[in-house]
Structures are given as C-alpha cells and as structure tokens.
Amino acid sequence: MAYVTNWIAFAISIVVLAWYAYEALHSACGWEEVYVCVIETFNVTFEIFAEFEEPLTVYLSSGMRVPFLRYTEWLLSCPVILIHLSNLSGLSDGYNKRTMLLLVTLIGCLVTGVYSAMCYYGWIKWAMYTVSCIYCAFVYWYSAKVYVETYHMVPKGRARTVVLVMASIFFTTWGIVYPLLFALGPEGLNAISFHLSNFLHCIADLFSKLLWGALGHQLRIIIHKHILQYGDIRKKTKVGFGTDEMEVATMIEPEEADETAERLPVEKYLRRPSFARIRNQLKQQGKDIYPDLDRDSMYGSNSSYTGGRYLDFADPDFPDDNYTPIPFFAGGGDLGLQAAAAAGSPQLAPGRIVLVVPETARWMVEFMRHGLSALPAPFEIIPTIGGGAVMQLTQMGTTAPGGLEAVLMHSYYARTGLVSKLRMRGVHVVIFGYSPSAPDAAEVQAAGADQLCEGYSMAPGSNGLKQLISALANFQAQAGKLPDGGSGGAGRTGGAAAGFTGSPSPPPPSSTYGGASMMMAASAPPPQAAPASIRMTSTTGGTFGISNPLFGMPPVAQELQPGLYSAPRSGTATPPNGPAGGNATGDGGAAEAAMLQSLLGEIAKLRSELGEN
C-alpha cells in the first residue's frame, strides 16, 4: 500500500511541477512552492527505489530503524514553507524578524525531534520529544499570528477563503498529524508499523506541502489581480491576537474607501514580470486595469497589442533608470499646423510648459516629445522626473521672460497635494491620464487642477490634445499673450505674443537650473515653422522644427537659424536672474557658444560613425 501511494504521490508531484512551469510562463509563480514541490518529488523518488538503503534509513545498534530520508526532507522543505508563510501575499521584497523567529523555532523543533527519534527508550527520548514540542508550540503561535494578520489584510471573498483553508491544512498536519504519527510510530511508542507510518506520512505530505503550496500560489494570483484592477487601497483596522492588538492595513475596493482609506503607490509593481503577464491576461479578458498600472493605454489602441502580446514594462526601446531628460521644443511644425487645421483648434502663441512624470515612467518623456509635436505653436517643454524639483522649476519658469503657461503632470500627482501648492502660487495645472471611469476619478477631480485631459495619448485628434490646446489658449488669453483676439503664433507671421518679440528665430538659452534650461528670453520672437532644411522627421508622422539637436537635428541647423542650445549672435537676451536688457555676446557667451558648437560637432561625428546620418 505504501509503495502504491508513493507512485501516486510521484505522479501528483510531476503534474504540479508542470502546472507551476505553465504558470511561471503565463502569469506568476513564486520560487517557494516550486522548491518545495521539487524536494517532495525527489523524496518520493528515493522512497520508491531506495527507501531502505543506508543512509536513507539508518540502522542503529539498538535495533531501531530511523527514516533519515524523511527528516532530511523536512529540513529541506519546512523552512521554505515558513518563508512562504511569512510572505503569503507575495508583495514583500524582503523578510523580517517574524521570518527569522519562525525559522529559528522550526530548526529547534526538527533537531530535537531527530534526537528523540534516534534515542533508545528512556527519559532522554521523551525529554527531547518534550523540548521539540515546546519549540513546535512557538512555531504554531507565530504561524497563527501570520494567518490572522494575512486574513484581515487580503481582500474579502475568495482570498480570505483561501487563507482559511491554508490555515486549516497547516494546523491539522503540522499540529496534529505529524506529532501523533511520531508518537505512535517506530520512533515513539512503536504502536504502528514502519510501513504504515510511511504510508500515512506520504498522505500528510501531499496535503501539507503540495496542496498547501498550490493554495498559496492561488492566493498570490488573487492579490495580484486585485491590485491590477483596483489599485492598492488600504484601510487600517485593529485586530486582537492573544493579549496583543495588531494594526492591519486591509486591502479594499474603491467603493469601500472612505476618508480614512490610504491609496498606496503601485509604481513599484510596474517592473515585476508577474504583474505584466497577469495584466495582459486581464486585458485579453476585457477587464479594466488600474490606470497607474496600465501602460498600454498610454499608447492608444493601435499599438497596445501586437504580435500576440502586450508591450512589456521593461521594454528596452524605452529609457532606463539612468535616463535624464533635457528640455526640448515641440509643436509649431507641419504636424502641429495640420493637426490644428484638421481639428479646428484655437491658435496659440509660443510658450513654456513644465512636464512632470513619475519616477517609474521615465519613458513617458519621449512619449510626450512626439505627442506634443502636434501643438499648433512651438512650446518649450521642461521635463522633470518625480515631483522633487517641480516647485523650483515653476518658480524659475514664472519669473523668466515669457513666463510659464502651465504645469502638465501625470494623474498620479493628483493625490500628493502638489496641485494645491502650485495653484496657491498662481500656476496653472493640467493633469493628463484622467478617465471618468477610473477608480481614482473622484480623487483626480478633487485635486483642483485647471484642466483634466482624458487619457495619456496626445496624438493628433485625441481628446487629450484638444483639451490641452483649449486650456493653453485660455491661459494665454488671460495673460494677454493673444493680442490679436486669439490667433497666436502657431508658426504664422503677424501678431506677436506678449513677451516674445524681435527677430524671427527661436530664443537662445539663458540659464540652466537642475538640467532644465529657461529659454525664450524677452527679445525672443514667435518662432515660425522651421524651414524644411532644418526640420526633422517625427516618428509619429509629419515633421516638426525647432527640436533638440541632441535628438536628431543635424548640426547645420545651428548655423542656419540660432535656436535651442546655440549661442546668440546678437540681441538683448536677458537671463532670468539678470538685468532687463543685457548683452548676450560677452566673453562668457562666446566661450559657451564655442563649447556648445564643439559638443554638437562631436555628436554629429559620432552619429556619422554609427551610420545614423
């Protein structure tokens, strides 16, 4: 009977391993359950073919047989089960003091249990057995605390049912079956035979290791799906355990949230392949994804799903963590003029925008570079990663000649209080990534921004771009930058915007703060559509001029038309912190011009060597 049971256990172990492999490729799978299943597979294999060979079974001089293979398997698998138990949700990246306490007490339980099994009958045997039970009691206590905390932390419904079943299996096998089999088996009172003990242990292993691990795997999948659909919204509750009281942050759905609920940031999950794969499955099933975790929606419907899979969060085509954005001009070229004519958008004067994107969405700067090229007038875009430098950049932007039209920020910052701080300083705020059906729609609306732009796409004709252009036109009209009644520069002649006068060329740089140049000085003109000789082709279609030379403009553009990152030849460009009418062609300016021209020449040479020209 034990032999047949071992073969059944072997077959079940192989099937479970195959299932874990499938899950690892298509959704997610933790290392703990896979490791335990592998150890169990090797254990039953040895039991089938060499159970009674030494040293798998130790034969003592006293005549006792000790199933050393069983204790070896326990020493290899049980610590990993407790590691899994200490992080049932799978959201933690590390282990804490609770994990260490579980492991220390387990090792004491197993070591003293093996000593008891190898001792001949007498007081030493039962003394070791008692010590092992004391250690075991601590394991149960700390484990029960973990189960109670996890039960109140996970969402209501299936997740809590899974936790209850896991706890029932754990305490039934670890707390009743194994100690009872030890006491009744050959290691203890010798009330049951060696073969019957092996048979019953095999059955218990199927429940305590394979079934428990499979349920733990399913619990993590449920939690992943909850976060992907609703975000990580927590509400703190008090839970009693023994004489202690624990504070547990319970995961809830948006409709359960009240003023005490806390919405935790979810950007840390963006680079986890498990979240990306499960998100793809949910999207294929037609499920709505929490906006901050739905990168595909930022690309529009034409590129979100290609070749049978969605774009990966770690796509090498986008900037990595070392990427540092620099200011650039966007809009005012053919693409912007065509988009404005087709959509009947209001005309704009040249202006300046601070773009704020989250730390985990650095790639969005490049995404916005192409999207904002559809603006009907040239705008200087000053990108910043994270919210740390926003207040300094906006202060410099508002005091610089030409002023600052708005701060364009990701909807993530609607919950940080940054919007109200900017509004108190009189800065216009536009939030992109808004969706009326999103779980955080009410929170974004309550932030108090001047304008909410739907979606993340600023493609020509998109609602987001139309709303942004309308907002910018209102801001410029209020500031008196549209003296001709609303027909701003937009790459056309006639009617200069307030603060932008002079020769028909883009303004030179005047100062730099934290990598963001404050350009467009008081003498700068309303930039016209750039000549064809210095335009670059946009990857989104059409052309746009006045672009950053570090991103594709040939160096000849700096000679034909002074502009971004080029030194002025003459004029009265005024630094933000300088006098009202200084000369920009002093010795320092000449040296800076020479250095920048040398840098542009080196870049052009490098591009030529790489075969990009």
Automatic annotation (TrEMBL):
One of its GO terms (molecular function) is photoreceptor activity. One of its GO terms (cellular component) is plasma membrane. Residues 483-535, 561-589 are annotated as: Disordered. Keywords: Chromophore, Membrane, Photoreceptor protein, Receptor, Retinal protein, Sensory transduction, Transmembrane, Transmembrane helix. Its main location: membrane. It is found in: Membrane. Belongs to the archaeal/bacterial/fungal opsin family. This is Channelopsin 1. It comes from Chlamydomonas schloesseri.
